[in-house]
Amino acid sequence: MKITDAKVFVGGPGKNYVTLKIYTDQGVYGLGDATLNNRETLPAAYLQDYLIPNLIGMDPRNSEDIWQFFYRGAYFRRGPIAMAAFGAIDMALWDIKGKLAGMPLYQLFGGKSRDGALVYAHAAGADLDDLMDSVASYVDQGYKAVRVQCGIPGMPTASYAVPEEKSAGTDYITDFSGIRPKVEIWDTEKYMRFMPEALQKIRDRFGPDLKILHDVHHRLTPREAAAFAKAVEPVGLFWLEDPTPAEDQDALNLIRQHSTTPIAIGEVFNSIWECNKLIERELIDFIRVAVTYAGGITHVKRIIDLAGLHNVRTGFHGAPSHSPISMAAQAHLNAWAPNFGIQEYLVLGTPECDSLFPSQHYLRDGLFYVSNAPGLGVDFDEDEVAKYSYKPGSHPVVRLEDGTLWNY
Ligand code: GCO
Ligand code: MG
User: Fold this and answer.
1) SS3 for 98?
2) I need a labelling partner for 201 at 20 to 30 A (CA). Which of 90, 98, 273, 407 fits?
């Protein structure tokens, strides 16, 4: 069996999805997602210029050897662009494998450990009342877990994931206003004064059963993060995400020494080498990698297995920048993984997105149910994608009030 061709498509409804389609001499094809948010053209070029010319003629069933060939063969290992490109190939090869076997991917991993997988939604508000309304609407829809982000009184601009105006909503994940980023102004003291009490009010209003998550988005120093994690202990958060930027992994020791609040980290990691020490030292509770950015199913499965040895559960990144293809890959891993924790999931199900990526996966009462179709269980309409083209966008940057550049 041989790979005969592979094509990369960039575009989608409101997102620059990077979709890889691998064709074989047996008519079976596979799909992969290489959408590196706000840097989408780069994995696309890596695939087109370097990887696809090598893929043609390879036996698609040898997904492990192909993964090693590209990873080791690059010489310059890791990095988000390369790992997103390898990941897309890997997803597509697993898709082909499942289709050849006539089985959904979770069966090839070891079968189902659960029916529906717990997901969390994003609630956000310009102020606490606005946020409470947003949480209430998710609770009414049956969600059991909600991430809460709130506008901070006196903060000079709206900050991460928070709308400028009440009930305005925000698409902070993909902003197509151009390559030059907008600037957010951040004030840690105002955040630290306001947020723990706001989280407690959310707990008081919604009761003990709602799983409440909060994303600090890398904004605190280790000492501040330790103080924050300690202050929110009575709230009983499901997790506190990215309390500090994770380059400084020793920072996690300080947080652990001061608090038992569960910590989730890893959405910017692209390999096991960024999280193996955090996992082995049990400094985190949830690993947040995404199959898109971390080398696909083959590599993320290694991370899941290592995490399972150390009481670390999965909590894969699922911002809507990932296409339904990698969300499907994660759904199969979530159905299987013995140490599954939760999945971040924002409904992409607009009619346009469903026509581009038809599938039978579905969400009900806050749980995600994986399709039983062979392979990933997602298709891709080449005629539909022709309606879209690449639009440049950027993540915001953050500055302190005196102009100092901070962490977005
Ligand atoms: C999350 C993330 C996202 C990121 C975005 C960047 O927890 O979902 O923090 O909101 O900011 O994915 O590309
Ligand atoms: Mg996050």
Assistant:
1) helix
2) 407
* Cα angle: 374, vertex 109, 80; to 5 degrees: 90
Neighbours of 91 (CB within 10 A): 31
* Secondary structure class of 157 (helix, strand, coil): coil
Atom of ligand 1 nearest to the CA of 241: 7
> Long-range CB contacts (< 8 A, 24+ apart) of 254-258?
254/222, 254/223, 254/225, 254/226, 255/222, 255/225, 255/226, 255/229, 255/283, 256/283, 257/226, 258/226, 258/227, 258/229, 258/230
Which of the listed residues 81, 119, 184, 267 should we mutate to test ligand 1's pocket, taking the one with most ligand atoms within 8 A of CB? 267
CA dist 145 and 368 (Å) reads 12
From the list 160, 191, 293, 388, the catalytic residue is 160
Residue type for 3, please? I
SS3 (DSSP) at 181:
coil
Task: Give the residue, by CA position, lying nearest to ligand 1 atom 13.
Answer: 37
Helices (H), 74-141: 80-101, 105-109, 128-140
Whole-angstrom CA distances from 178 to 45, 182, 187 are 20, 9, 26
Strand-strand pairing, 362-364 and 3-10: unpaired
CA of 160 to the centre of ligand 2 (A): 10
Q: Cβ neighbours of residue 317 under 8 Å, at least 6 residues apart?
A: 266, 267, 288, 289, 290, 293, 344
State yes or no: is 120 an active-site residue: no
State residue 136 phi and psi, 5-degree precision.
-60, -40
SS3 of residue 337 by DSSP: coil
Q: Which residues of 390-400 are buried (b: 16+ CB within 10 A; e: fewer)?
A: eeebbbeebee
Read off the tokens for 281.
């030292």
pLDDT digits (tens, 9 = 90+) for 60-107: 999 999 999 999 999 999 999 999 999 999 999 999 999 999 999 999
Quote the DSSP letter at residue 182: P
Determine the Cα–Cα distance for residues 203 and 3; give it in Å rounded to an integer.
53
Q: Which residue has tokens 């929110």?
A: 232
Q: What is the 3-state secondary structure (H, E, C) of 265-309?
A: ECCCCCCHHHCHHHHHCCCCCEECCCCCCCCHHHHHHHHHHHHHH
Torsion of CA 164, 166, 167, 170, to 10 degrees: 10
Question: pLDDT, tens digit, for every residue of 124-169?
Answer: 999 999 999 999 999 999 999 999 999 999 998 988 999 988 877 6
- Ligand 1: which atom is nearest the Cα of residue 215? 7
